[in-house]
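call fold target=Squalene/phytoene synthase
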Amino acid sequence: MYSTPAFARGLKLAARAPGLRRGFVTDADVEQARKYCLNQLKHGDYEAYLLRQFVPPRARDAYDALRTLNLELARLPEAVSNPTIGRFRMQFWRDTVNSTFAGNPPREPISLLIYQAITDLKSGSGASSANSLKFWLLRLINTREQHMENKPFASLAALEDYAENTYATLMYMTLAAMPLRSVHMDHLASHIGKACGIVATLRGIPILAAPSQPIQGPSGANLGNTRNPALLLPLDVMAEVGLREEDVFRKGPNAEHLQDAVFKVATRANDHLITAREMLKNLQAGESAGHDYEHEGETEHVYSPLADSAESTSVDIQRGFGALLEAIPASDYLQRLEGVDFDPFKVRSSWKLPWRIWQALRRQQI
């Protein structure tokens, strides 16, 4: 997302205002970037807006910036008229990340707030965590680009891989910004992130399956639609239950076997949440997680054997519990989906979500 005119005017005023400078970025620049990102989350990702207050203050700039960027990337398929333009925008964000981590952030609010976050992280001897952030951030952008055209996932396993490389990756970045490197916290984040990614796909069904609004030219003429309707449910699940894409596009919630497919996919998300809850209970009791972390040993998932004691794990869970609260909105949605017999078109927003987040924090349970 390029700088808005109002934000650009603010930067010019900030450049003339007194205040400390971090490189060429002033305190006023950073404060305007914070306000911009917070406003984007409040109106575009309210769940992240609720959860951010439970992230440790030193990681909050990173959380706000990264979640705002994720919102921008998720909106791209809807915001551009063809995938080519979308790929140009993705390349813009890759270039922005490289410039920002090289110490030369573009005059754009998300990059300025990321720059502030990594500057603070490095000043606290978190240089390796800053490098981790860059790795995860580029992986997020690359994965989003691969799915720009909103094609169905080939299989439920492919959907899980997508969720690992997007929503779990966002959680890895939150932990890195704390900074907190823990095999058990990453393992919990992997299961919770997979559940969140699957839930995001289910939540998108009523939006993506509906035809987009036509684009009108200056004269009022219809210039076509920004996109075709899409259904991202895994093909293997749809084949198993006998669901056809075109039926959903034509009949919406009345498509035969839609609820059967949604049930199977939702069950996988719920399985990941159940696994995460059991793991957390075991770890809080000083026991083993119960199963190995499938991504251990991969890039940025290499850990010190000294950081695997029950005592250090307990401390890590307390420090990073705010990141694990991402499980609560996912769980809340799945409960509401079950309440309408797995019809995603009937799910309504939840006024109980803030209370459920607070209860989870108070009980230290997800």
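return ok
Confidence is low (pLDDT under 50) at residues 1-23. The two ends are 33 Å apart (CA to CA).
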